Amino acid sequence: VLFRSHLNEFVSDQTKRYRFHYMDSANNLIMRWDSSPHHKELDTFPYHLHIGDKTLPSPHVTLIDVLSCIEGIVLESLKRDE
What we know:
By secondary structure, this protein is of the alpha+beta class.
């Protein structure tokens, strides 16, 4: 299973912003968690998740949360390939 990731997190006393990309080996976006202040219609604003062309509510996540999610996806994929 090949995948790529792009991780960006900025933390200061006043601000915590992040952008975590999970992509396939051809650089197609699979999922992106971010805290950009758009999508004010979501209950979890500014936190949200992009899956394909959908934007979904998402709680605030940490890098550990994202890596755990990706690990689950990869392990499930490996089980299907057996």
